[in-house]
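We append the chain.
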Amino acid sequence: MELTKDWAAKYLPARPKNANKGTFGKALVVAGSENYPGAAYLTCAACYRVGAGLVTLATEPSVKVIVSRKLPEVTFISFKEIFEDLVEYDVLLLGPGLGQKTQAIRLTEQLLKEQLPKTVIDGDGLNILSKTNKFFSSKIGEWWEKLGNKVILTPHLGEMARLTGLTVKRIQSDRINVAQYYAKKWNKIVVLKGANTIIASPTGLLALSPFANPALSTAGTGDVLAGIITGMLAQGLKPFDAASVGVFIHGLAGEQLRKKFGSAGALASDLLPLLPQVIKKLQ
C-alpha cells in the first residue's frame, strides 16, 4: 500500500488529557561518538518532538556535554548503566553515530545477549551487525537469530548492501522484492530508506512512502527518522505501524522543508520543529 494522510492519521498515538510522561513511553538511545555527536542530538530531539515522554541517552562523556547544552530535556546514563536499567525502558534505539571502535563493537555484542525491549537499529548499529564474523570475539551465530521479532532495521542502500552482500545496484533495481525477502529471512521490520522509502514486515505487509525529496538527501536526516520511529514505538504503536507512521511524518516534514528552502541547502535539524506541526495537521 502507499501511505496516505488518512492512513497515518488513524495510527497516530492517542494523547489522553490525564496523561503523564510515563504514558508516552521511556526511550533509551544508544548513540553518538566523538566524531558524530550530532547524530545523538538529532535522534533524541526527534524522539521528543513526536511525543515520547522521556528520552535517555547512553553515550560518551564528550557527547553528553554537547547534547546537554542543546537539549536539556534529555537524561543521561553511561554505557555500563545500560545493562542495569534496560528493563525500565519501553524501546531501545541503537546505532546513530555510534562509530565502529572497540567500545561500540563490544557494547553491541553484549546487547545481542540481552532480552531487549522493542528495538530500532540504525546507522553504525547496522554496520557492526554486518561485520559480526569479523568483529565479534565469540561465535554468536547469525545476528538476526539473537534479536527478537520486535525489531526495526532502518538501512539506507549502502547499509543494506553491507548487511546482505548484494550490490547497491542490485538492491536499487529490485528494492521491493529485496526488502520483502530480507524482512522475512531476518524476521524483522525492514525500512529501506531512499526515494519512496519501503517498509516491509516478515508477514508480508508492505508500505511505500509517496515522497521522493532531494531536500532530504543530506547528513542527519536518517538520524531524525530513527528518532521519529523510536518515539512512535515508545508511545505504544506496533513496530510496522510505528515504522510506517514515522516514515510518513518524516516525509511530510521534508515536503514542508522543500517548500521553504527549495531542493538544496536545508539542514536535518530544520526538520525538528516541523515534526509537531505535521502531527497537528494530521490530527
User: Anything to note?
Assistant: The chain has a mean pLDDT of 94. Strands lie at 26-30, 54-58, 75-77, 91-94, 118-121, 151-153, 189-192, 198-200, 206-208. The chain has one domain: 5-14+24-282.
